[in-house]
Amino acid sequence: MEKSIFEKRVVEKNDTGTNMRFPGDAKTNYLPSACSNEGLQLLVKDEKGNLWKLTCKKRNGRICFTDGWKEFCDGRGIRDGHKISFYQDDDDSGSGAQYKITVM
Questions:
Q1: Phi, psi of 55 (to 5 degrees)
Q2: DSSP secondary structure string, the chain?
Q3: Is 8 in contact with 15 (CB distance < 8 Å)?
Q4: What residues contact residue 66 under an 8 Å CB cut-off, 6+ apart?
Q5: What is the separation of C-alpha 65 from the centre of its chain, rounded to a whole number of angstroms?
Q6: Residues with Cβ < 8 Å from 85, sequence gap 6 or more?
Q7: Choosing a second label site near 38 at 20 to 30 A (CA), which of 28, 31, 62, 100?
Q8: Of 38, 31, 44, whose CA–CA distance to 58 is shortest?
Q9: For residue 19, which of 69, 83, 71 has the smallest C-alpha distance?
């Protein structure tokens, strides 16, 4: 079952660099507790079926995508105004991804 964690409109100068902060209303209870401590690498599948390794960790009191985020933005051509949706959804294809991300 799909569980929405957040939706966010990209602000290029803040969200397409080396990290992206989760919005304040993100449902972080759907993330492993390690995301808020030392950081944890998540296997994330996009709507095109590509797999990405994104690290989430807590910085300055907010959870962020850190390692792998810039590569994701560059690879997907993320720009100002794009909408990111991130959710928990076990992948049935056998890829091992437990999270999905869509870009609109």
A1: -95, 130
A2: --EEEEEEE--HHHHSSS-EEPPTT--GGGS-GGGGTT-EEEEEEETTS-EEEEEEEEETTEEEE-TTHHHHHHHHT--TT-EEEEEE---TTSS---EEEEE-
A3: yes
A4: 18, 19, 39, 55, 56, 57, 59
A5: 6
A6: 4, 6, 7, 101, 102, 104
A7: 100
A8: 38
A9: 69
The model carries a pTM of 0.88
Please count the other Cβ atoms lying within 10 Å of the Cβ belonging to residue 49. 10
One-letter identity of residue 76: R
